[in-house]
Amino acid sequence: MNESLIEKQNGNFDIDFFELMFLAESVIPPKAIARSMCFDDFSDRHYHKMNDSQRLQFLEHVKKCQNFSLENEQCRHFFARFNPKNQYFVSCFHMGKADSIICYMFEGEYRTEKHRFVNRDYIKKVVRIWDSQTII
Asked: I need a surface site. Which of 2, 36, 91, 106 has the fewest CB within 10 A?
């Protein structure tokens, strides 16, 4: 099977980082549902494919775009996810197992994705990554 056919079957396509920044400009909310979902994918999928420098560069680029507004919930979520000063090590204990998770704060919850957060009942310690300050 040729490579392009495999990519289409998996639904994945390679995209250059700078092309991704230009794509972001066209999907900043408010937009139709498909574009809106693409914007959410930056936080839930593509964030993890970037290094710290790329994340900061991507955040700075998107913040400068005409439609980006912190009055929009999706834009606020994007900002919370990519803001390097909003990243935390969350230590938790659940079902007899200790774990440490990198999270971000959004709407008062430590999140790993837009719709996934750590239950506060299980949180034992929170340390903000950028300045190593213990929060909890």
From this structure: 2
Question: What are the residues whose beta carbons fall under 8 Å from the beta carbon of 127, sequence distance 6 or more?
Answer: 88, 89, 91, 133, 134, 135
Residues 55, 20: contact at Cβ < 8 Å? no
Output the CA angle 33-37-42, nearest 5 degrees.
150
- Rounded CA-CA distance 24/58 in Å is 9
Alpha-carbon span 103 to 113, nearest angstrom: 8
10 Å Cβ neighbour count for 118? Answer: 20
Give the H or E element holding residue 105: strand 97-106
The DSSP secondary-structure symbol of 134 reads B
> Which residue in the block uniquely carries the two structure tokens 């995209």?
15
**pLDDT, mean of each 10-residue run, the chain (136 residues):** 46 79 86 84 94 96 95 96 98 94 97 96 97 96
